[in-house]
Structures are given as C-alpha cells and as structure tokens.
Q: What sequence folds into this?
C-alpha cells in the first residue's frame, strides 16, 4: 500500500529564483530603454530646436531680403522642456517611491509638452512676420514666399521619445534601483564589519603599551 505525504515539498532554489531573475531582467531592459529614449529624445529636441524651421522673403525697397527663423525663434518651449526632461531623467534614480512617481510624471509631461509645442509651431509664421517688419521698417509688412522645413517634426519626434521614457518610468520605475541601492536592495541596513581583534603579543601593540606607561608583560 502506498502512502502520500501531506508535507509540501519545498520548491527548488532554481525554481524559486527564476521569477526574480526574470523580473530583474525585465527591469534592466526597461531601465536601459528609458535611459536611451530619454537621452536621445532630449538631444534631438535640443538639436532640432536650433535648426531652421521656416524661410521666406521680406520686401525692402525695390528688392527682397531672405529671412529665416529657427525653432528657438518660433518657440523656446521644446528646448526648455528638454532640459527639464533631462533633469527629471537623472532625478528618477535619486528618489524612491512617491518621489520617483512624481519625477517620472514630470518627465512624461516634459516630453508631451515639447512634442505639442513643436507640432503647433510647425506652421507658425509670426516669427518671420516680425523679422520682416523690422527689416523693412514697416510694421504692416509680412513675410512672403513662406516655406517650412521638417525640423519641427524632428523636434516632435524627440518629444515623443521623452514621453515614452516618462511612461516607462511610471510603469516600471518602482523596480529600478536607486543611487546607493546596489548594496541595499532589500532596504535593510548594511551589516557593520567587525573590528579586528588586537593581539597584545604583536610588537606594535607592545610598543603602544609602553608608550602608555603600561607593563605589557603584566597579567
């Protein structure tokens, strides 16, 4: 007759470690993706904001003068938010819990704001109209032959990358390590190293005892 034991068999160490290893691998992948998207997105926004977004001509006397407007001339919002996003990306690893959630939200909002500002400025002509008025000396003068480049949409794409980095941080940031957390992953304080026991028979200890006026040979 066979007997069935009621005592549950503990899972093997390999079986219990596999979910944790899988979670750690997923955390490292999302962390690397957020860092990549955030850094590249901020760099793209800053670079594209300094490029020419619109071109045209202003009538001066009997001729015309070519004028151009960069992204910074059209709107300074994307570049400013890219800097905020970079700071938030770094701050994500300096805070924990509610602070990390708040900073992750700021990162996502920076990307969304930069993308929206770039999209709205893609067809803007006000910056060139102001330049045309100053160049011609006529406040009613507007730009003519207006053309737009693709740089606003490149800026828009960079803002989206920042937004994705923020969304990844919001979703998976709780599993990411924090600065100084490498040695305290479980949140428990680190154990202090025991102080080395002094050997009174060592020569340096004997000399120290003589300097203190003690008899090192005494019991």
A:
């Amino acid at each position: 007759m066979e007997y069935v034991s009621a005592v549950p068999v503990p899972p093997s160490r390999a079986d219990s470690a596999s979910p944790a290893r899988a979670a750690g691998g997923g955390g490292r992948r999302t962390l690397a993706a957020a860092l990549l998207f955030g850094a590249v997105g901020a760099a793209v926004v800053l670079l594209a904001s300094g490029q020419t977004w619109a071109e045209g001509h202003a009538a001066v006397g009997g001729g015309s003068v070519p004028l151009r407007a960069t992204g910074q001339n059209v709107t300074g919002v994307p570049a400013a938010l890219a800097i905020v996003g970079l700071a938030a990306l770094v701050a994500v690893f300096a805070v924990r819990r509610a602070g990390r959630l708040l900073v992750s939200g700021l990162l996502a909002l920076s990307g969304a704001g930069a993308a929206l500002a770039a999209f709205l400025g893609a067809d803007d002509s006000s910056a060139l109209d102001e330049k045309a008025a100053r160049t011609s000396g006529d406040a009613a003068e507007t730009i003519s032959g207006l053309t737009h480049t693709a740089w606003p949409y490149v800026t828009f794409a960079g803002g989206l990358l920042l937004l994705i980095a923020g969304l990844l941080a919001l979703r998976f940031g709780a599993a990411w390590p924090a600065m100084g957390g490498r040695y305290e992953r479980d949140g428990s304080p680190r154990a202090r190293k025991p102080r080395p026991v002094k050997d009174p028979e060592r020569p340096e200890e004997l000399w120290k005892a003589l300097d203190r006026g003690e008899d090192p040979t005494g019991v």
